[in-house]
Amino acid sequence: MNMSIFWSLIVIISAIIEVATVTLVSIWFTIGAACALLCQLLGASIQVQISIFMIVSAICVIVSRPLARKMLHGNITKTNTDSIIGQIGIVSKKIHDNQKGEVKIRDTYWRAQSLNDEFIDVNEKVEILAIEGAHIIVRKV
């Protein structure tokens, strides 16, 4: 097979994969193969072409991967709801057995369940451990 065709196929296939996935998984190989194709057109040996492909692809990964990861995942910001985890609340309706009670946190009332189905009486302080659906999981402080 002619190396021009080989490198062109690598460029095309990796570009199609990149466009299809939009997750920056093959763009580096597209660039590396394009550089190897350029080397082939300039008359470089197969060993040089393969070396250029590997070196350019590796450099592209090393340089751009942290930036790509940051751009794709962004900054994860807690929502107002997430921010109550770890906070202390006051029980406003007792929590017992498998029965949900109610806890007041920052002027908001939440349906609450205790972590180990323990009894927690009104006016006791609790720590918010998690949010499950529309209620919170708490434990006595």
Automatic annotation (TrEMBL):
Domain NfeD-like C-terminal: 82-140
Superkingdom of source: Bacteria
One Pfam family of this chain: NfeD
UniProt-annotated location(s): Membrane
GO cellular component, one term: plasma membrane
Assigned keywords, A-Z: Membrane, Transmembrane, Transmembrane helix
Coiled-coil intervals: none
TM regions (residue ranges): 7-29, 41-63
Claim: Transmembrane is one of the keywords in the record: yes
Membrane topology: Multi-pass membrane protein
PANTHER family, alphabetized: INNER MEMBRANE PROTEIN YBBJ
Name of the molecule in the record: NfeD-like C-terminal domain-containing protein
